[in-house]
């Protein structure tokens, strides 16, 4: 008789697994926990931590159907990657907790001069505030020519830092936009 | 391809004992091989274990070590232990993955009086079913490696289950998959023993003359084995030199304890009859394969040539409950 | 990376992660890859176990990398140049260098001008008043044809080879031991293994990270290693190289795309005020060949620059307006990280935007940074998590009522909520799929940036203001202008033939006449008509060397090992046929994508196509601020005098910001211990303070100190200790360890204390900020702060503290 856990469960459900002494073996063979990534949708991504560039697979709950907001349930290494071959360090192995966290924020916050606490603002207000501050500081600090009369077209009053954690495409767009704005104080984590 | 989990032994349930010879096919016997010489102590395995098994977080505090927890716990089934030792004037940072070794002859299972609380599959995994655990902690005393941990809140004991849910689905355990430096390997016991020999050779060529495989015979061999660079200093790795597993002798005290445990767990007097008739799960010497056993130390760790059929444990004949309980 | 470009022509990891498996000797120094790059480090362990490679660590601490190394040597923080200089001397003295390689592929044969000299700790050309060098004093000597004079015999007393020998002759094993605190025997054992690779049939690699860059001599430490690897013939070869291990997922990509002061995408140069026209910018930015036989690929600079301006300003970049030359700001002076802080500290910076970055915790001398931040008018912090930098006004010791800085915090999306590519340390740009939508309420970085751009642009349209043509004319023809797609941007980066709209397949197609566009020339070929090359998932590895040309895209041109022409000899035969990078078959080069013309014969040009010399620079004539060779200078805070020349103890050309000299404790007995800061594997900088499992595995801020020092101070393992520098103090749990030993430096015992960087006042657990202790001073070339070596004192917490 080939008794696997599955067949035992089936038998137990039928009430057949009773010992000679009448002891019901049903509880003795509760199901192994189902594979938690069973039927999850897989997405191939890259670990967000160091620059080894480990391939990862994000397992996502939800069919992607119209009525569903998908949720990451697990992340593990991509065995196909020639770099990491499915392995991950403790940071990589816990990245699900980085992706899904009660500590993530969902609300723009503004701290006024001298205030002891944040106040919540909506995105439209936040972006208007940002653009207004940015333009005013640009205008106030903008130099078309230096002391020797040479064209410099520079906005020295604003600095932009970051980030080594955004994608190439966002990094490129940051540089393109900030250089067009006339900033020169631009740097990121490469130096630190 | 998913593996079916074929049951080999069930705690306190001799009638659920499945003679291996009677099986059509038991599938492969797996083992995990931990190469301490390649371990960087990154705790990737420790974290992957917790993440996969949803063990939950427990608060910790640095106690003057890189080690995260002082000890294993119901929420920490795998712990990296760190130990700074000087060997011949050279500093060694010994880092050991501490978790269930999944003994071929599991002392925990033999000691367990609760039917179905501990199960051993033919693939080598020894699994705890908390639903059936009565919290008596006999497994804790029965384990020669001090692995199972009792949870005072749930009144249940737990330990590493070798990610049995993953193995059933055809995946290696989480700790194995994540290990960055190939310090944990996974495969058939045969392949892991062969790999262990190769790793010992590599260590010896690198100057670790006492490198050895840890696969102690006293418990019938294990399904998590170690390659130990300093095979002569097992205690520095917190590895017992000669672990054994045997059912507790049926002393009057032991007997009463067992009765008490049953009463606590079930309150069914009838089970007493069951116990008197069958006793605890018996060791069956034929149920495992002697040639699988590699004791510690250079002599047994390297160069021991397995005999024919050495790695055919699942197909080895096993008389039902025949042999006396002696390890 | 300044020193890699100064030596080889490009500033990036020369090889790639999997290639490390091909090596015979791995020197890990200035890095701790087992902790900071564990899955890349696997290839070092693989080489150790499968090839019998020797794995060596040289570090102020016995790390988790050392735990699996064959040999470890402890040195004092900041003594790296002495050790590496000693290795150079050892190789030359014992004739262990790879002579054929050195003659074929380096500038050893070049003759240097008579003005060059080094004496008493200074190179010639030093201007004391300006604290800098006139680098013309380091020029090569020219022949009658205008090209550099060369001496193939290497015998000319002013040949680079002879100058090199003379310069490093002072770095005897005894001097190394004196400075670094190791023993002569230990050093010689290390040297023997490392220098065993100076042969055709052996190859060695060096893995380094910020343990080298974060010094006032950081660039020159790397230069010394680069010189050593050239002498040993280890550059350009599979299993060789000098491998810079980057610490964030896309440090390499963000640098390539120039979120960096002083450069534009693809390492083009930001124009300066004296460059009053495109012509002068081109002329000063385009190197001219120094020898006849050099590819001098940077000679194509104008094509890259014009194509970038076409990508940015489209029809508004024309020949008539110098391709929008005036649209870009002209940068005057330094604009890097430390200078940004200094400007804020002086109160002349109004606004500060930090995206995906926690600058308060990441910068040196946190008390100074807090002061600087409080002087800003406004600050915007964009991150998925709340950051210490956004709540600096709540930092311990701060009174919010005294701080008028307005702060906006914007919650942005995560890596997993957006597609796009990351470029790893080994230059592989890998596409990542979007797995889920951002949580409701959260916006992507792209959205935030686009909204900012549009709202600023609209404000200018509505009310006018400072010159804003570049804003009005910036190309932004994305399908959804308020949130461009990653694919649109990737294609823009790759570039187009503007006459046909075809995506370019190679930067060889770029022109300087305005008919091509490319946002970043080194990524041309990454998204072609054949599709997204960064998303390729082919796993074939025909040569077995781990190159995987069908996996992702490796800039430049999908080349896996940089400078691979040097993996073959002058005739194009691989130095080691079992590990061939490329080989000449009489018609073309086969193997890796050649770093050379595919059909260019081996003798037609030098192996290093990115240098105007055509070869690699043992002597870096014009590239670095602090010398054509490296020299040991002490950290600005050092427990020891400079054993070589105490009249010039520290790097003479570092930039001193106001008030910094006063914040240093040099020569002060109150701060007797060397201190270094670092990461641990369970954490990555600060973001991991939000991850419960990682906080659990490494919960608390700690201080690592040697047993002997702990005994002397009465500090028990696990007890609380206080550590303080002249700038600030921290408190944490003591880890008393055998892994740091006392060292004898110049006859004096020096103790080293170690401190991890990961804690702040926000997080699941809080802890002292390590950078409360560090000095506000940086490298002479990169301004990378000297986090890795400074002075502190230590005592049990709770006992009376010495007043300082």
Strand content range of chain B: 15-25%
Mean pLDDT score of chain C: 97
Report mean pLDDT of chain B, rounded to a whole number.
79
Q: In one word, what is the shape of chain C?
A: globular
Count of separate DSSP helical elements of chain B: 9
- Which strand order spans the largest sheet of chain C, edge to edge or round the barrel? 26-28-27-32-25-31
Please report the two chains with the greatest interface, counting residues with C-beta closer than 8 angstroms to the partner's C-beta.
Answer: A-C, 117 and 162 residues
Poorly predicted segments of chain C? 799-804
Number of strands of chain C: 32
What is the first-to-last residue Cα distance of chain C? 38 Å
Whole-angstrom Rg of chain C: 26 Å
Number of separate helices of chain C: 21
The tally of strands of chain B reads: 11
**CA distance, first residue to last residue of chain B:** 36 Å
Query: Within the largest sheet of chain B, what's the order of strands?
Result: 9-2-11-10
Which sheet architecture does the biggest sheet of chain B show? 4 strands, mixed
Helix content of chain C: 10-25%
User: What would you call the shape of chain B?
Assistant: globular
Unreliable sequence segments of chain B: 249-327
Report a brief summary of the structure.
In chain A, 26% of the residues lie in helices and 23% in strands. Chain A has helices spanning 5-13, 90-93, 96-99, 123-141, 168-181, and strands at 41-46, 55-61, 71-77, 109-111, 119-120, 142-145, 151-161, 183-187.
Structure notes:
The complex is a heterotrimer of chains A (192), B (327) and C (804). Chain A contains five helices and eight strands; from the N terminus they run αβββααββαββαβ. Chain A has 192 residues and is α+β, with helices and mostly antiparallel strands. In chain A, the strands form three sheets. Chain A has a three-stranded antiparallel beta sheet, with no helix packed on it. In chain A, a hairpin with an 8-residue loop joins strand 1 and strand 2. The relative contact order of chain A is 0.07. Chain B is α+β, with helices and mostly antiparallel strands. Chain B has nine helices and eleven strands. In chain B, the strands form four sheets. Chain B has a four-stranded mixed beta sheet with strand order 9-2-11-10. In chain B, strands 1-5-6 form a three-stranded antiparallel beta sheet, with no helix packed on it. A two-stranded antiparallel ribbon of chain B has the order 3-4. With 804 residues, chain C is an alpha/beta fold. Chain C has 21 helices and 32 strands. In chain C, a hairpin with a 2-residue loop joins strand 4 and strand 5 (122-123). In chain C, helix 1 (2-8) packs parallel to helix 10, helix 4 (80-93) packs parallel to helix 10 and helix 14 crosses helix 16 (366-374). Chains A and C meet through strand 1, strand 2, strand 3, helix 2 and helix 3 of A and helix 3, helix 11, helix 14, strand 12 and strand 13 of C.
């Amino acid at each position: 008789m080939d008794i696997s856990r599955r067949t035992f469960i089936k038998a137990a459900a039928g009430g057949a697994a009773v010992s000679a002494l009448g002891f019901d073996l049903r509880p003795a063979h509760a199901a192994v926990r189902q594979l938690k990534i069973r039927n999850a949708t897989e997405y191939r991504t890259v670990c967000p931590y160091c620059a080894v560039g480990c391939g990862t697979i994000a397992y996502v709950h939800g069919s992607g159907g119209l009525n569903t907001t998908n949720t990451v349930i697990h992340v593990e290494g991509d065995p196909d990657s020639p770099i990491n071959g499915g392995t991950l360090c403790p940071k990589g192995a816990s990245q699900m907790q980085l992706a899904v966290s009660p500590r993530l924020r969902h609300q723009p916050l503004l701290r006024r001069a001298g205030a002891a606490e944040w106040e919540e603002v909506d995105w439209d207000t936040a972006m208007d505030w940002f653009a207004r501050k940015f333009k005013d500081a640009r205008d106030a600090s903008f130099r078309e020519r230096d002391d020797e009369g040479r064209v410099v077209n520079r906005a020295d009053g604003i600095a932009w830092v970051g980030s080594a954690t955004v994608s190439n495409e966002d990094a490129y767009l940051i540089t393109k936009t900030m250089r067009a704005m006339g900033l020169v104080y631009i740097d990121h984590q490469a130096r630190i | 391809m998913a593996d079916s989990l074929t049951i080999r032994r069930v705690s306190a349930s001799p009638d659920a004992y499945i003679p291996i010879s009677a099986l059509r096919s038991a599938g492969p016997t797996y083992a995990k091989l931990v190469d301490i010489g390649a371990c960087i102590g990154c705790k990737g395995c420790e974290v992957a274990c917790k993440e996969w098994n949803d063990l939950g977080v427990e608060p910790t505090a640095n106690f003057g070590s890189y080690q995260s927890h002082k000890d294993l716990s119901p929420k920490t089934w795998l712990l990296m232990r760190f130990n700074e030792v000087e060997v011949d004037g050279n500093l060694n940072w010994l880092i050991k993955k501490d978790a269930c070794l999944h003994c071929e002859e599991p002392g925990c299972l033999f000691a367990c009086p609760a039917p179905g609380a501990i199960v051993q599959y033919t693939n080598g995994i020894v699994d705890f079913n908390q639903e059936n655990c009565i919290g008596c902690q006999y497994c804790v005393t029965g384990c020669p490696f001090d692995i199972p941990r009792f949870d005072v809140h749930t009144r249940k004991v737990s330990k590493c289950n070798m990610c049995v849910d993953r193995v059933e689905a055809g995946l290696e355990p989480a700790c194995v998959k994540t290990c960055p430096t190939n310090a944990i390997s996974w495969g058939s016991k045969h392949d892991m023993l062969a790999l262990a020999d190769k790793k010992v050779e590599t260590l010896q060529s690198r100057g670790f003359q006492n490198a050895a495989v840890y696969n102690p015979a006293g418990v019938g061999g294990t399904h998590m084995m170690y390659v130990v660079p300093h095979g002569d200093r097992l205690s520095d790795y917190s590895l017992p030199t000669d672990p054994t597993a045997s059912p507790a002798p049926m002393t009057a005290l032991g007997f009463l304890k067992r009765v008490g445990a049953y009463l606590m767990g079930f309150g069914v007097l009838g089970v007493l009859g069951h116990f008197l008739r069958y006793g605890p799960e018996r060791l069956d010497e034929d149920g495992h394969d002697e040639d699988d056993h590699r004791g510690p130390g250079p002599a047994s760790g390297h160069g021991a040539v397995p005999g024919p059929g050495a790695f055919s444990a699942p197909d080895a004949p096993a008389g039902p409950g025949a042999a006396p309980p002696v390890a | 990376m300044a020193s890699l470009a100064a030596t080889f022509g490009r500033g990036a990891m020369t090889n790639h992660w999997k290639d490390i498996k091909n090596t015979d000797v791995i020197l890990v120094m200035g890095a701790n890859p087992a902790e900071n790059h564990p899955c890349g480090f696997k290839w070092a362990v693989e080489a150790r176990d499968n090839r019998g490679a020797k794995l060596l660590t040289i570090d102020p601490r016995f790390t988790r990398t050392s735990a699996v190394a064959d040999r470890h040597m402890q040195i004092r923080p900041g003594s790296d140049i002495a050790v590496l200089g000693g290795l150079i001397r050892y190789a030359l003295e014992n004739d262990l260098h790879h002579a054929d390689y050195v003659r074929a592929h380096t500038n050893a044969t070049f003759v240097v001008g008579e003005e060059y000299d080094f004496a008493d700790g200074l190179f010639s050309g030093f201007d004391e008043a300006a604290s800098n060098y006139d680098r013309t004093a380091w020029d090569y000597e020219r022949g009658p044809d205008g090209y550099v004079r060369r001496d193939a015999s290497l015998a000319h007393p002013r040949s680079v080879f002879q100058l090199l020998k003379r310069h490093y002759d002072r770095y005897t094993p005894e001097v190394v031991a004196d400075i670094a605190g190791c023993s002569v025997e230990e050093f010689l054992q290390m040297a023997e293994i490392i220098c065993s690779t100076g042969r055709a049939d052996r190859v060695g690699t060096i893995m380094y990270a910020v343990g080298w860059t974060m010094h006032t001599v950081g660039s020159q430490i790397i230069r010394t290693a680069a010189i050593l690897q050239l002498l040993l013939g280890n550059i350009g070869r599979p299993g060789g190289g000098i491998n810079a291990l980057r610490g964030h997922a896309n440090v390499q990509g963000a640098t390539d795309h120039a979120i960096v002061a002083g450069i534009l995408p693809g390492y083009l140069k930001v124009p300066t005020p004296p460059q009053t026209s495109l012509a002068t910018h081109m002329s000063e930015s385009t190197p001219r060949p120094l020898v006849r036989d050099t590819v001098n690929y940077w000679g194509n600079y104008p094509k890259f620059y014009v194509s970038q301006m076409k990508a940015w300003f489209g029809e508004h970049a024309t020949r008539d307006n110098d391709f929008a030359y005036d649209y870009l700001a002209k940068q005057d002076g330094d604009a890097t990280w430390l200078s940004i802080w200094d400007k804020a500290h002086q109160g002349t910076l109004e606004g500060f935007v930090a995206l995906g970055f926690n600058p308060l915790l990441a910068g040196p001398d946190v008390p100074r940074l807090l002061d600087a931040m409080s002087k800003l008018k406004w600050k915007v912090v964009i991150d998925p998590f709340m950051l210490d930098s956004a709540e600096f006004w709540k930092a311990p010791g701060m009174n919010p009522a005294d701080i008028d800085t307005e702060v906006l915090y914007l919650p942005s999306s995560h890596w997993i909520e957006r597609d796009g590519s990351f470029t790893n340390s080994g230059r592989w740009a890998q596409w990542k799929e979007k797995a889920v939508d951002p949580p409701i309420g959260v916006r992507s970085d792209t959205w935030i940036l686009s909204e900012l751009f549009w709202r600023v642009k609209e404000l200018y349209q509505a009310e006018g203001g400072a010159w804003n043509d570049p804003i009005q004319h910036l190309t932004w023809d994305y399908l959804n202008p308020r949130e461009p797609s990653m694919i649109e941007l990737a294609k823009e980066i790759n570039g187009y033939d503007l006459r046909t709209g075809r995506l370019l397949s190679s930067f060889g197609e770029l022109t300087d006449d305005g008919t091509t566009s490319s946002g970043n020339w080194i990524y041309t070929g990454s998204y072609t008509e054949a599709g997204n090359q960064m998303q390729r998932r082919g796993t074939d590895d025909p040569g077995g060397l781990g190159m995987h040309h069908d996996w992702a895209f490796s800039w430049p041109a999908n080349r896996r090992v940089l400078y691979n022409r040097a993996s073959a000899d002058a005739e194009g035969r691989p130095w080691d046929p079992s590990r061939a990078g490329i080989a000449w078959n009489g018609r073309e080069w086969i193997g890796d994508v050649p770093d050379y013309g595919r059909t260019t014969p081996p003798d037609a040009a030098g192996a290093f196509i990115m240098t105007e010399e055509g070869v690699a620079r043992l002597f870096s004539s014009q590239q670095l601020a602090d010398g054509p060779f490296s020299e040991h200078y002490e950290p600005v805070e050092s427990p020891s005098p400079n054993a070589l020349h105490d009249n010039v103890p520290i790097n003479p050309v570092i930039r001193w910001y106001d008030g910094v000299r006063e914040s240093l404790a040099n020569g002060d007995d109150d701060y007797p211990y060397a201190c270094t800061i670092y990461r641990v594997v369970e954490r990555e900088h600060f973001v991991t303070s939000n991850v419960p499992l990682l906080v659990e595995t490494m919960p608390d801020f700690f201080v690592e100190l040697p047993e002997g020092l702990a005994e002397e101070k009465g500090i028990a393992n696990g007890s609380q200790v206080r550590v303080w520098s002249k700038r600030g103090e921290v408190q944490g749990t003591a880890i008393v360890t055998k892994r740091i030993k006392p060292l004898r430096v110049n006859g004096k015992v020096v103790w080293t204390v170690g401190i991890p960087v990961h804690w702040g006042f926000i997080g699941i657990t809080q802890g002292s900020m390590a950078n409360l202790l560090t000095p506000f001073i940086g490298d002479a070339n990169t301004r990378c702060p000297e986090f890795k070596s400074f002075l502190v004192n230590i005592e049990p917490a709770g006992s009376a503290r010495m007043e300082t």
